[in-house]
Amino acid sequence: MAARKIAVPRLRAQLDSVLPAEIEDETRLLDLGLEDIDLSDLEAEHLEIGGCRLTRSKLAGSDLEKLSLVDSELLHCDVANARWPDAAVTRVAIVSSRVTGFAGPGMSLQHTTVRDTLLDYASFRFAKFQKVEFTDCRLLSADFVGADLSGAVFRRCDLSGAEFSQVKAAGALFVDCTWDGTKGLAALTGATVAASSPIDTLTFTSAVTMAAGITLAHPDDVE
Question: What does the radius of gyration of the chain's CA atoms come to, in whole angstroms?
């Protein structure tokens, strides 16, 4: 399978560090390097964040409808319980962050990497993933119902209890992931699942079999 090249964020060498006095609908935050900034519970529509690096900053509980997040990095940030419906995310890197309980219904992600990040109970219903890679992430009970995962890669991710019903998965790639109690696996038609361990392969196969309503048994256990 050919490697999927994901474009990295394009940031200026020198970034400003001063936020606008007020952030409201259609505010543009451009070329900023922000550390330890608290934007928790921020509410705005059509906010644009471009060319920014946010470090140890808080967006927890924010409600940013139709957010445009472009050419940016979120490093060690808290985005827990944020709601970003119909957001457009392009050339973004999220590293070692907390994104638990996040809701991004209908959002579009392109050329985005998410690494070493907690996304338990995150919801990406009907989202579209194009050249997006999750690496070493925990996605316990994450919700991907109706999402287009055809351009998504999951490497060494814990997908226990996650929900994949009604997804489009042709072309999606899962490598060395954990599948305990994962739901909707029958919808992963066309995806590639790779596992280094035969035990992991058996675990996934058993989960898919159960999802299809098939019972596996030993001949000695049946009449």
Answer: 19
In angstroms, the Cα distances linking 4 to 111, 130, 133, 152, 171 are 10, 10, 9, 10, 11
Q: State the pLDDT at residue 203.
A: 65
**218 inside domain:** no
Beta bridge partners of 16: 32
| Residue-wise DSSP of 116-160 | S-B-TT-B-TT-EEEEEEEES-B-TT-B-TT-EEEEEEEES-B-T
Whole-angstrom CA distances from 133 to 23, 174, 187, 205 are 30, 10, 20, 23
Question: Is residue 65 over pLDDT 80?
Answer: yes
Strand partners, 74: 54, 94
Classified as helix, coil or strand, 6 is: coil
* Domain identity same for 189 and 145: yes
- pTM to 2 decimals? 0.90
Q: What is the CATH number of the domain that holds 49?
A: 2.160.20.80
- What is the mean pLDDT of the segment spanning 102-108? 98
Q: Which two tokens stand for residue 52?
A: 């920014």
Widest CA span in the chain? 75
Q: Which domain holds residue 80?
A: 26-107
Distances (CA, A) of 106 to 1, 11, 109, 147: 28, 26, 10, 8
Which of 23, 21, 61 minimizes the C-alpha distance to 41?
A: 61
8 A C-beta contact, residue 62 and residue 40: yes
